[in-house]
Amino acid sequence: MFSKILIANRGEIACRVITTARKMGIKTVAVYSDADARAPFVAMADEAVHIGPSPAAESYLIADKIIAACKQTGAEAVHPGYGFLSERTSFAEALAKENIAFIGPPVGAIAAMGDKIESKKLAKEAGVNVVPGFVGEIEDTEHAVRISNEIGYPVMMKASAGGGGKGMRLAYNEADVREGFESVKREGLNSFGDDRVFIEKFILNPRHIEIQILGDQHGNILYLNERECSIQRRHQKVVEEAPSPFVTPKMRKAMGEQCVALARAVGYYSAGTVELIVSGADPTGESFYFLEMNTRLQVEHPVTEAITGIDLVEQMIRVAAGERLAMTQDDIGIDGWAIENRVYAEDPYRGFLPSTGRLVHYQPPLPGWQEDEQVAGKARRGVARGNGSVRVDDGVYEGGEVSRFYDPMIAKLITWAPTRDAAADLQIEALDHFRIKGLGHNVDFLSAIMQHPRFRSGELTTGFIAEEYPDGFHGAATSEEVKRLLAAVCAGNEFTLQSRNRRISGQLDGDDGREGVLRVTTEWLVKLGDERFHVTLGEGHAIVDGVKVEGTCNWQPGMTQAEATDGAGLKLGLIVERQGNQWKVTTRGAQHTALVIPQRLARHESLMLEKVPPDLSRLLICPMPGMLVKLHVAEGETVQPGQPLATVEAMKMENILRAEKEGVIAKINAAEGESLAVDAVILELE
Known about the structure:
17 helices; nine-stranded antiparallel beta sheet; Dna Ligase, domain 1; 6 domains; Rossmann fold; globular; 686 residues
């Protein structure tokens, strides 16, 4: 067995490999770029080597720098993770020349499966179902038209070297072929340096199902069941699960045996995945076809680990060290159900625009959830929650940055439970407890998918998102029960906040029996979005529009996360913010804004108007009580974003206040040595 390995990757997959290596007693080496100097994986590894600037092309994609790091640290093997150099034959060959083990498949298998045209030929020869189409080079547009007419529409035109959704075009008729063929060629050439195109039949109601393969260097190859990856956006996977709700035992066996035959045909060992396209329109389940083989670990491997109890990274390391697999096909079972959601830095409310930036707050849904004997012995299953478990694979940290240089994935949320519905319910609960602030993220969108009736039915296709959200995402649908509970929560929070404020100010009725107008009311009008609810607060319950809502909410002033129940089984995880005179509450995949006023004032409609907060961006406001020890600018001076403006000392610590945007200092309102109150205006910009 290796004594030290290097991980030629970054982020969550680097953390993932280090975790297993540590469990196996193997020392680890991380390599990092400028952007990742403070990343968690760098701190986790036993050693770390800087390999260059932030762009991947100048760091993670340079094989010579990886090999130099191996020599510098004495690493005997390299785990490539996924992406970057993981499927580069030249990298595996270069490692072999230096007598450094590659924790992955043999070079020949990588080369054979890396070409979409050649891999389809090999699959056909191995007895694997392939999509009806033309497997060969296409001369020109006229040739493409003839082929498409022979196959029958619709057809899919794909760049041979394509991936990640690039170089793909769907054609429903001859005109589409004439219009799109040359575009696919150009995309293939520009993105991958290869303009070859192949054409195949487009499968109706397509489902994306993949088979996990695991083999050793002694000829043993197994299939570890399937994963359903049909929910995609622009050909990028969003949700994965294992097993598939569509696959029967008979279908699973047929798929698995064909995929093993393909792996055997190319002398495969290590972990790998054979991707299949399956016709959801065929009730027999026999219409499944080879798409491609990924000769590496997949992003979604945790769901397979959860239902099989097999640590795939550990097996990859053992296989690379020459060990035999310790299990047979008969040992591979299916225990429960697992779902993985990819938490991305993108804003689904704004057309899924990428949202890079700093993670002002980052708290995954794990603190306080204790390990349980029920799941502690299961490989890579996670932390117990009820009858299931939750696992978060991430590589970010609070205060860190999601960089424009790399993939926008923040984390992978994996839940396991005995049933599919229970695993989905646990996803909803866990997503409610994700705390991310500072950039846009898709947590609400993922929760909406988990609640969607079509997802719950298991009737999935690769067109799910486009079909169910044709006009974009605007938040998950909210039931009347949830709305009533939220109205009660917001009224209760307002009561708690006002009671505390009056108690602090000495205005609230005390123990002397005084009665008067300063008592905080229990009668409220709650404007939740465009709806209004009349709420009367009682002991352990509230009356909302005449409906009694029994339950509790643990929110207290200063808290940003809370839980609420209605006493009838409904339980909500809440992200709570006070914004001006309103409450912003996020739960169950939707954001809710509530204005709460005493019922006696409800007749004054003007009080129900939502006030637009003033623009304070041109003011430098003192964030805490303290002394102004230094002014760094003068009136009339032009400043740039990030430039120091003033230094305030508070609690024996100096705090530098910086410009948020470009501007000219119009007025200075405080002098050095002056004591400032919180929210005091230090200076103003034009």
